[in-house]
Amino acid sequence: MVVTDEMTSDMPHDPSAPRRRRARLALLAGALVVILVIAGVTWLAVRDDGSDAGTAATPPSAGPISTGDVAPEFSLTTLDGKTVKLSDYRGTPVILNFWASWCTPCRAEFPLLRETAKAANGKYAVLGVNTGDIDTDAQQFARDQHANWVNGVDDGTVAASYGVKPLPQTFFIRADGTVAAHTLSELTKDDLAKQIASITKR
After folding, report:
1. CA–CA separation, 30 and 33 (whole Å)
2. pLDDT value of residue 54
């Protein structure tokens, strides 16, 4: 059957049809907005994570330093307010010790380091880096232990450049500035004597 204009004029009119169409359009528009928002948040998360950006969002930390590497240069304020740089010791073998006053094995090895520094006689130098510590605690501990070697105060930057996390750690650096050995635990008298011999031999 063909429906003519005359016939449709006799059909009942639904006054709510336009409202329903508007409601459907509004619902579709709302769903589209939600999809766009989710897509945008996902894109930002991927970009910040760096996994799909081609490069890492933050550069990888330096270290750990390996045997044969050139020891990274640094400049620190010492416990007594002066300035020390690793390059100040170029031409002299260096025992570079990372420590903190709260670190039990660090405290245990301090007397050995004191004896070692006293016996140096210009053949080598002992240089401490206090890291992850409270300045006043470090100063008091160094005074109590009669530390007779230079100790710089690190905000974590130098430790990161050497790849140091657990404490204590000690690097044995040759006169030419390259690393001869690296100890990741409390120093012993025998190991210390062995490593000193390795960086001072001609």
Report:
1. 5
2. 29
Calpha distance 35→51 (Å, rounded): 23
Cβ–Cβ < 8 Å for 98, 162: yes
- Closest by CA position to 128, among listed 198, 47, 116: 116
Residue 147 backbone phi and psi in degrees, to 5: -60, 120
Look-up: residue for tokens 């570079």?
96
* Phi, psi at 129, each rounded to 5°: -125, 110
Dihedral of alpha carbons 63, 86, 102, 80, sign: negative
Residues in the chain: 202
Sign of CA dihedral 79, 153, 103, 179: negative
In tens, the pLDDT along 69-81 reads: 999 999 999 999 9
- pLDDT score recorded for residue 33: 57
Nearest of 170, 152, 162, 21 to residue 94 by alpha carbon: 170
Closest CA to 78 of 33, 123, 142, 5: 142
> What DSSP string describes 34-70?
HHHHHHHHHHHHHHHH-SSSSS-SSPPPP----TTSB
**pLDDT for 66:** 87
Whole-number pLDDT of residue 64: 72
Residues 55, 47: Cα–Cα separation, whole Å: 10
Residue ranges in the chain whose pLDDT is less than 50: 1-12, 41-62
